[in-house]
Amino acid sequence: SICMSKQNPSKLYVAVSDSNFSMEGVYVTTNGAGSFSSLGNNGISSNYSNFGWYFGELEVNPADDNEIYIGGIELHKSGDGGNNWNPNMPPWWQYDVHADIHAIAFVSPGVYYLGTDGGVYFTNDDGANYIDADNIPNTQFYRVEYNPHQPAMHYGGAQDNGTTSGNQS
């Protein structure tokens, strides 16, 4: 993932996964990619859990380019330009915010949406509380089939959200 500072277009952050798809590290350039400095992966090394190809959304606070967010199994935040990271959501297993963060969209500093495997979440207090936006009529299906003995019955396996069924009407 790559993200540009909103204050300085020459400042870019890049999140890199290694050949095992684990978090290799985050890098920063302040000269428009002329050279990069490693920030390591302090605090986020396990956030990819060998799913680097699947995660890695990186976003910078629009008002402070030293405040960086990275998606993974959980959302992590750095307030010091990527040197140290801390979770910025409840632990995924509590299901207050669904695991697997793929998108971060800022409305304003501290106000943003998260796109996850389980839907969209909103915070207006920089992650102290999240609201589950449940009224979005969409599902990510991996497989859809019908019952050969009851062809009107259809089934769909959803990403991290079980199986749904229904019939033609």
Question: Secondary-structure map with pairings?
Answer:
Elements: E1 2-4, E2 12-17, E3 23-29, E4 37-40, E5 58-61, E6 64-70, E7 76-78, E8 86-87, E9 101-108, E10 111-116, E11 119-123, E12 131-133, E13 141-147, E14 150-158, E15 163-167
Antiparallel strand pairs: 1-2, 2-3, 3-4, 5-6, 6-7, 7-8, 9-10, 10-11, 11-12, 13-14, 14-15
Structural account:
It is built from no helices and 15 strands. The N and C termini lie far apart (43 Å). The strands form four sheets. Strands 1-2-3-4 form a four-stranded antiparallel β-sheet, with no helix packed on it. A four-stranded antiparallel β-sheet has the order 5-6-7-8, with no helix packed on it. The chain is an all-beta fold and 169 residues long.
Short summary of the structure?
This protein has no helices and 15 strands. The protein has 169 residues and is mainly β. Strand 7 and strand 8 form a beta hairpin.
What key attributes describe this structure?
169 residues, mainly beta, four-stranded antiparallel beta sheet, 0% helix, 47% strand
Strand content: over 45%
Topology as H/E string? EEEEEEEEEEEEEEE
The DSSP helix count reads: 0
Largest sheet: 4 strands, antiparallel
Rounded to an integer in angstroms, the radius of gyration calculated over CA atoms is 19 Å
Distance between the termini: 43 Å
Global geometry:
elongated
Low-confidence stretches: none
Number of strand elements:
15
Structural class: mainly beta
